[in-house]
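Would you mind giving me a polypeptide sequence along with per-residue structure tokens?
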Amino acid sequence: MGEFPEWFPNGCPHDAAEVNTTLYHGCETDPASQEDFTPHARSDLPRKQAMARAGGCMAFGLSVWTSEADATHAQELFRYAARWHIFRGDVTEDDGQLAPTPTANQPSHHTFWAYDGIDLMGKFVPALPPLAGGA
């Protein structure tokens, strides 16, 4: 089992498990940038920092889905997500841990917390374009 970065809060994540699976993640750019794979809690962007203050442990992970259909649902549900490029990546138990983090509108939402030193951006490739007319 890997180690989480030293900047993770104590006890974060909880109720997460190591997995071997394919994940889907929304990126603002294609090609993806390192910022697209930076947890909100470590971002230099003020809007992400503001979201991180209310995000608790989730702010230290990456927002993901475990199916293409769930990622597309997020694009259809939220105007900001309609602009996202959806990237797909395979992760293993050596990369980190995953937990369901559902919301009222996204019951299949998950968070992935990468172990220290893992380059998630290098594991992901483009899977779906932004939705037509995404505003």
